[in-house]
Amino acid sequence: MSAEHKALVRRWFEEVWNQGRMATIDELLADQAVVHGLGPADLHGPAGFKTFYSAYRNAFPDVTIRMDDIVAEGDRVVARWSGTGTHLGDGLGMAATGRQVQFQGVTIVRIEQGKLMEGWNTFNQLEMFQQLGVVNLPLP
Q1: Which of 14, 17, 29, 103 has the maximum number of C-beta atoms within 10 A of its C-beta?
Q2: Within the chain, how many helices (H) and strands (E) appear?
């Protein structure tokens, strides 16, 4: 089952993020799915995820995600990934800067009956906002 679960997560990142195929969200994300860590509140089901996804793809229409590591055990898959994109839209609530960013993250997914049922996400948004010039922290 681990190989199938890894293939499902790889497909998610390739089709949803790299190819921009919104229809894959409806196909792979369960109606009862809960997605944690992409905003101040959990996202519920495909409709909830699409709100985040549309805003992010607006801000970074050329976003590309590369799988760095992927591990599966039981009903869980852990993916460590790296991303790049060019800030060309205002989907994140700020005017486009035209700057390119690089960011990294980890996603843990629970799979149930061949669908993504729950996801936990963490990625370095602070570093991304620093690269955009939105956040400027003094060096220690």
Answers
A1: 29
A2: 4, 6
pLDDT, tens digit (0-9, with 9 covering 90-100), for 25-67: 999 999 999 999 998 999 999 999 999 999 999 999 999 999 9
DSSP secondary-structure letter at 18?
A: I
Q: Are 124 and 102 in contact (CB under 8 A)?
A: no
Q: Which is nearest to 20 in space by CA: 52, 46, 53?
A: 53
Domains and CATH numbers, the chain: 2-132 (3.10.450.50)
Query: What digits encode the pLDDT tens for the residues 104-124?
Result: 999 999 999 999 999 999 998
CA distance 97 to 82: 21
pTM here? 0.92
Q: On the CB side of 88, how many CA atoms lie within 13 Å of its CA? A: 9
E-only strand ranges, 74-99: 76-86
* Cα–Cα dist 34/36, whole Å: 7
* Cβ neighbourhood burial of 52 (10 Å; 0-12, 13-18, 19+): middle
